[in-house]
Amino acid sequence: MNTVWKGFISFGLVTIPVKLHSATEDKGIKLRQIHDKCKKPIKQEKVCPICNEDVDSKSLVKRYEYATDRFVVITDAELEGLKSDIEEKSVEIVEFVKLKEIDPVYFDKLITWLQIATVQKRTHC
After folding, report:
1. Cα torsion through 87, 93, 94, 95, rounded to 10
2. Fewest CB within a 10 Å sphere: which of 32, 55, 70, 74?
3. What are phi and psi of 116, to 5 degrees?
């Protein structure tokens, strides 16, 4: 089970460290493409459509396309920074709602919360 998020749930002065996991797994069928003539799997090569050259993994950079043909480069360090920002957040539960009050559009994926450590008390100064 892969961890989707790691952080804290707080109820007033009580803080509980938790991990968030997907409650379901996609068990779809994975198909491979094979060459009809020799019945062997094909290779998927990385080729630049402009230069028509093979591109090795050292020459690749990650970019986010924010508009058509408009990109911003994202470094591995920036991605790691985003990951650590997400992992350090906490969820403070203010109130509970009835199930019928939640729009089913939010039920795209089931999740489970797992406690990962003992309960800690948080003090306010």
Report:
1. 140
2. 32
3. -115, -5
Residue 18: other Cβ atoms inside 10 A: 19
How far the first Cα of the chain sits from its last, in Å, is 38
Q: Return per-residue pLDDT of the chain as tens, 125 residues.
A: 677 777 788 877 888 888 877 777 767 778 888 889 998 888 888 899 899 999 988 888 888 888 888 999 888 888 887 766 555 567 777 888 888 888 877 777 666 767 676 555 555 55
Longest dimension (CA), the chain: 74
CB atoms within 10 A of CB 90: 13
User: 114 lies in which domain range?
Assistant: 3-121
13 close to 121: Cβ distance less than 8 angstroms: yes
